[in-house]
Amino acid sequence: MKTQTSKAKEELKGSIKGRVLVPDDPGYEEARQVWNAMIDRRPAVIVQCVQADDVPPVIRFARKNGLQLSIRGAGHNIAGNALCDNGLTIDFSRMKNVRVDAGKKRAYVEPGATLADLDEATQAHSLATPVGINSTTGIAGLTLGGGFGWLTRKYGMTVDNLVSVDMITAEGKKLRASESENADLFWAIRGGGGNFGVVTQFEFQLFPLGPEIVAGLIVFPFNQAKQILTKYRQFVNSAPEELNVWVVLRKAPPLPFLPESVHGKEVVILPIFYSGAVAEAEKLIAPLRAFGTALGEHIGAQPYVQWQKAFDPLLTPGARNYWKSHNFTELADGALDAIIESAAKLPSPQCEIFMGLIAGAPNRIAADAMAYGHRDAKFVLNVHGRWDEAKDDQKGIGWAREFFKASAPYASAGAYVNFMTEEEGDRVAAAYGSNYDRLVEIKKRYDPANVFHLNQNIKP
Ligand SMILES: Cc1cc2nc3c(=O)[nH]c(=O)nc-3n(C[C@H](O)[C@H](O)[C@H](O)COP(=O)(O)OP(=O)(O)OC[C@H]3O[C@@H](n4cnc5c(N)ncnc54)[C@H](O)[C@@H]3O)c2cc1C
Q1: CA gap 44, 22 in Å, rounded
Q2: Segment 299-317 mean pLDDT
Q3: pTM score > 0.70 for this model?
Q4: Could you tell which of 76, 327, 355, 422 is best to mutate to test the pocket of ligand 1, judged by most ligand atoms within 8 Å of the CB?
Q5: Which residues line ligand 1 (CB under 6 A)?
Q6: Antiparallel, parallel or unpaired: β 266-274 and 247-251
Q7: How many CA atoms lie within 13 A of 47 on its CB side?
Q8: Mean per-residue pLDDT for 262-269?
């Protein structure tokens, strides 16, 4: 292995501008860290690309040497497929540039950019596009799997706002995919993940936003959970799409606006986001307070980029994480009961069950318009198991699986691939439902050898 890796280093160094790291190199250990500390993989070579032209020689090198290939955006994916054992990782952590054309309302984004990179660049022009809710997440993985966040009700999934991508295929060929160029490939990558090639640039359409929005949290006692969830279900049916309200059940973090006696106790949290006129927010939010007897709240006008970082302190890298997820078209009583029962048994102070509301613009797109096809989904539920010590793995994983099973009868078909763990491979075809066969056909055309298999794999 040692001879192979030093040979790799010399050969690659000569053909690219980026940095080549092999075990024992300074920076190698840091480069093999990803968000989920349960992932501990050691690539034989990590190539930190600095330009799109670095990618074709790297792909060719990996194929010639029989090295499996993984692609790292910002390394957030729970399954850890950004890394591979003994293979080659294409690492985009040094390609994070975002260029905004404010006149055209377009952003051109390199594949290592995080949500923070994109939000900061677009908000400099009071523009935005829907992305996720944790600013350190990668644009690349998030977009290729679908992508949703606070703006999704109004403007759709992240993929719904993707205009084009620049890609490198398994053959090392550069091409552009959009509605008018390589349209089949563009259909596939909008939800099909990293199965079809390496994206070196994303182009997004942008919308006017902020820079101030109204957002914050209302926190209720856990013993009112059933009434809060029942009223929530009713409320979101008629809430305007500028208003987004999620639900989080967890143990209360030590938030300064909560009485100390509540810290560490189970609570129901309603995170609220309103992107309409600031003056309109109060009357829309007021009914939420009447859901129960709030323990505290913290809501106000603030920069969008600040709210996009609000949950970062709860989602830092380095903890052990295990997720299970379902989509729902409606929240049946049984689903609410399962959520509450499970939230009463949280195995660690960092575990949570959250429900993201995506009802609105995504539902107005046809299920076969692109690979991401969950157009009936109104809620995405994630059971987020999170703890610090390996000794707690079985307890945390067991809790997540038990809840997943209990809530399954009320879920809609399909699954959000970005929330799937490594061991859910058999769920991939089901996740794509009726779009799966077309994905297989396109995979056969663009990657018949399954070079890009470290992902939620669509087998050619
Ligand atoms: C704390 C946290 C919060 C999250 N919040 C949200 C949320 O609000 N909304 C939401 O929709 N999702 C959310 N996610 C899920 C997130 O969308 C996925 O984890 C996503 O895969 C992360 O992208 P990444 O680039 O950081 O991941 P990586 O692990 O770097 O990449 C994931 C996979 O994407 C593929 N890939 C990456 N880059 C490329 C590329 N350039 N070309 C081709 N394929 C590539 C590879 O197959 C890779 O294995 C969250 C995840 C975390 C950990």
Answers
A1: 6
A2: 97
A3: yes
A4: 76
A5: 35, 71-78, 81-82, 92, 111, 132-134, 137-138, 140-142, 144-149, 193-194, 198-199, 315, 418, 454-455
A6: antiparallel
A7: 34
A8: 97
CB count in 10 Å sphere of residue 247? 24
- Which token pair is 105? 């309302």
Name residue 270's amino acid: L
What is the distance between the alpha carbons of residues 428 and 458, in angstroms, rounded to a whole number? 7
Q: What pLDDT digit, counting tens, does each position of 347-368 carry?
A: 999 999 999 999 999 999 999 9
Q: Evaluate if residue 5 carries a pLDDT over 80.
A: no
401-457: pLDDT as tens digits: 999 999 999 999 888 999 998 777 678 999 999 999 999 999 999 999 999 999 999
Q: What does the pLDDT average to over 40-57?
A: 97
CA atoms within 13 A on the CB side of 181: 10
Give CA–CA dist 75/429, Å, rounded.
24
Peptide bond into 211 cis (omega under 30): yes
Q: Pick the residue whose CA is nearest to atom 1 on ligand 1.
A: 315
How far apart, in whole angstroms, are the C-alpha atoms of residue 326 and residue 416?
Answer: 7
Q: 206: helix, coil or strand?
A: coil
Q: Per the structure block, which two tokens stand in for 14?
A: 């000569």
Start-to-end CA span in the chain (Å): 30
